[in-house]
Amino acid sequence: MTGPTGESLMSMRLRIEQDIFAVRQLGREVARAVGLETQDQTRFATAISEVGRVLLAEGPDTEVVFSVRAYGVPTLHVTMAQPVSGEAGQVAGQLHQVGRLVDTMEVDDGDIGTVVRMARRLPAGAPGLTSARMDEIRTRLAQHVPGTPLDELAAQNQQLIAALDEVRAQRDDLARLNAELEETNRGVMALYHQLSEELEETNRGVVALYAELDEKSVQLRAASEAKSRFLANVSHELRAPVTAIIGLGRLLTDSGSDDLTEEQDRQVDLIRTSASDLLTLVNGLLDLAKAEAGRIEPNWSDVDLKAMFGQLRGTLRPLATRPEVDFVVDEPSVPTLRCDEVLLAQVLRNLLTNALKFTESGSVRLSVRRVDSDVEFTVADTGTGIPPELHERIFEEFFQVPGSKPVSGRGTGLGLPYARRLAGVLGGGLWVDSVLGTGSTFTLRLPAS
């Protein structure tokens, strides 16, 4: 037999008040037979008895039908129909609290009068509702003999005692959990205070460290300024006597002076060469001191790069005397550049001179191109090259690559540091790409405007 929501299990009618006890017992038996848990059996039976009491007060002959839906989510249903129509709103108001005992409850006026439909989902572990099991349940329910109201009252008392025991157990569990939570909170607060103290101690250490770093920075700045002043003063004081030595050497070898012996002429020439090298070093120190002190102010103008490249080609040609080295200055693809002509020429001259010193064979090439909104000068050589770990160290004062020997001239270790500082003064940067044994490419990048 098929009910309104699935397979019908049992039905009965409420005519007198004693039937309310019988339908409660029957509801509990149905709930037990389909697999509801004990507490859910009590809730389901209580909901049926309360609805039966309300409907019986409206009039006798209430039909109660139990059914199950075995497909989808297995559900136990009960439909209670009262022949009196038009009372759905009043009944629903009286059954407001009953809806909490079941999963769903609907109250409406149907063709047969006021109808109340309730449903309760079966637990996941309930036995499957096969056809054979449905027949077994129907047979068992048909053999059910309702007890007396006194028996039902005793069963309700037992259920109440079980519910109270469960509530007491839950209350004890809740008290235990609250105690554990309180203990955990105390531990968390203790840990929080410990972390706060450690963080405060760390902050004090960081503040002290920053204060020490600030003090060291002031000391370093003072030392750097003292070094710059020392270099400037010493360079300035050395320039006059060194220039005088060069002048005296020139007078001794002048045609108007007395003739010198071959040995004397060689020694005077050695004095002049040493003095010239010393003057170069002094001038480099003075230029570096000015750059470090920030006393170099660019004189901005539109520089004709073609004319500058031609001047560099002419002035440096005497240094490129070895036939094994091709000295190439490309025609600039950028005609003009807003820059300081003197400072730019110094940077390029330092780079070219350095490349010619350390290139034994191959080529030294100067070129320029536009890159995005910048202008990029490159000086590429096929010299000895620089190890990767020394690419930045060569821009330190007085540092020279270990084992490197210039093919011509002597290096002071000041040209590249000074060139990089001038690049910064001009608003750009200077760096090197080099492979040991292959050569080096120095790149000077400046803003185009």
Automatic annotation (TrEMBL):
Keywords for the protein's UniProt record, in alphabetical order: Coiled coil, Kinase, Phosphoprotein, Transferase, Two-component regulatory system
Coiled-coil segments: 150-198
Enzyme Commission designation: 2.7.13.3
EC primary class: transferase
GO molecular function terms noted in the UniProt entry: phosphorelay sensor kinase activity
Keyword Transferase: yes
Subcellular location: Cell membrane
Chemical reaction(s) catalysed: ATP + protein L-histidine = ADP + protein N-phospho-L-histidine
GO cellular component: plasma membrane
Ranges for domain Histidine kinase: 233-449
Xref: InterPro entries: HATPase_C_sf, HATPase_dom, His_kinase_dom, HisK_dim/P_dom, HisK_dim/P_sf, Sensor_HK_Regulatory, Sig_transdc_His_kin-like_C
Alphabetical list of Gene3D superfamilies matching this protein: 1.10.287.130, Histidine kinase-like ATPase, C-terminal domain
Principal cellular location given in the protein's record: membrane
Source organism, top-level taxon: Bacteria
PANTHER family in the record: HISTIDINE KINASE, TWO-COMPONENT HISTIDINE KINASE
Protein name: histidine kinase
Organism ancestry: Bacteria, Bacillati, Actinomycetota, Actinomycetes, Micromonosporales
